[in-house]
Amino acid sequence: MHYGVAKEMITPDFPMYMIGYAEYYLRTYESVHDDLFVRCLLLDDGKRKAIMLAYDLLFHDHSLAQKVRQFARSEYDVDEDAVVLSYTHTHYSVAVKGYASEEADEKYESFLFEQTKRAIRKAFLNINEGELYYTSTTADESINRRKLVDGQYIMAPNQEAEKDDELNAFVIRDKQGKVKAIAVNYSCHPNILRDLPSLSSEYPGRICQILENEFYGSFAFFFQGSGADTRARVTACYDRFVPRTYDDVDDMAKRLANKIIRQMELQKCQKVETSLRYGTFCIKCPLDVKPRSYYEQDYKDDPFPAIRECARYVMDNYDSLPETCDLHGGCLQISKDILVIYLGGEICYSTKKLFKDAFPDKHIYFLGYADSTAYVPSDKIISEGGYEHEGSIIEYRLKGTFRPGIDKLMLDAVNGVVRSF
């Protein structure tokens, strides 16, 4: 197996609007706490190549994935289906196309694409022979944020509800046995700090810093999982969530990174015989359309200008908006027993469980946030209601809520790709 690794800074050197909270609307960042990066991991099993990219951004619409895939194909003959983009979902990044298209800056969009191309080029210039390992443990750093109160699901700490505690990692060692890459996969919203006006990669970026410092000459990656319905446990305070500090971010990252390091020290990493396969899909998810009056009411009542602008957008474009939502995703088989499944949008743990149940003989390395589609609820969450089902549709400018039956659509799409392997 051969691999290539690289990273490029994507912190802007000019004023830009931030993204991550409604309070950030038309608010320019005032400082940089720590830099943002795009990280590139190239895998080559001798027959096929695959590229995994992780961005320290909230997310981006699918157009960036399309451009990057076309570049990888034209420059390096990498199949477009073999290129995976993922976003750490840090709530302290800059506005980009998709969730915040009006606040996005074309200058930054060009810069982001150029830095992505540089990272890919460097990875191809930095190809070496090595061995791939996989490890998995658990970490209790998150808490479910959906709580049933007076018959409705609200956003509050829920100690009893299920959440994704899996902490997975790919580890690459060179022929001398030295660690050269660690790709961490965990599920939890990076919004510990609330709405500070400083750019930060938050706990995902800090994990990467810690691991790179621990293993000199290595590259670390963070791939966000099914964390749409969780927050950091440290932010839970009785029946509410409260902002914490950079020290709390640091402590959480250290605990997670040290768990991975401990797995490696105990040699609890299985060697992987790479056998790359891949495929993508796009699901046309039907929506239960809301009347125009629904958005008119929110435009009048919502306290946040950013959300009111989203409601206005739907009102102004109501007749032309689609009554479906495109959900992009795909699968990347690493070996016969390790499968990367990725989906656009914000994905909750109940969706990841569908795939784990569907493939009980495989290790599932699950990525959400492959683009900025929307909150994508499972049938379970649709039946329960709450922010992830209905409360978020205006900010994502959807014409309605996802219809029941989404579980089958997702499972059928993933099964269709896996069967093609």
Write up what this structure looks like.
The chain has a domain at 277-420. With 421 residues, it is α+β, with helices and mostly antiparallel strands. The two termini are 19 Å apart. It has ten helices and 25 strands. The mean pLDDT is 97. The strands form seven sheets. Strands 1, 4, 5, 6, 8, 11, 12, 14 and 18 form a nine-stranded mixed beta sheet that branches. It has a five-stranded mixed beta sheet with strand order 23-21-20-19-25. 30% of the residues lie in helices and 33% in strands.
Say how many strands there are. Answer: 25
Helix percent band? 25-40%
Q: SS-based structural class?
A: alpha+beta
| Beta strand % | 25-35%
Query: How large, in whole angstroms, is the Cα Rg?
Result: 20 Å
Q: Report on the biggest sheet.
A: 9 strands, mixed
Number of helices: 10
Shape: globular
Residue stretches low in confidence (pLDDT < 50, at least 5 long) are none
Q: N- to C-terminal separation? A: 19 Å
Mean pLDDT, rounded to whole units? 97
Characteristic key phrases:
421 residues, alpha+beta, 10 helices, 25 strands, 30% helix, globular
Quick structural overview:
With about 425 residues, the protein is an alpha+beta fold.
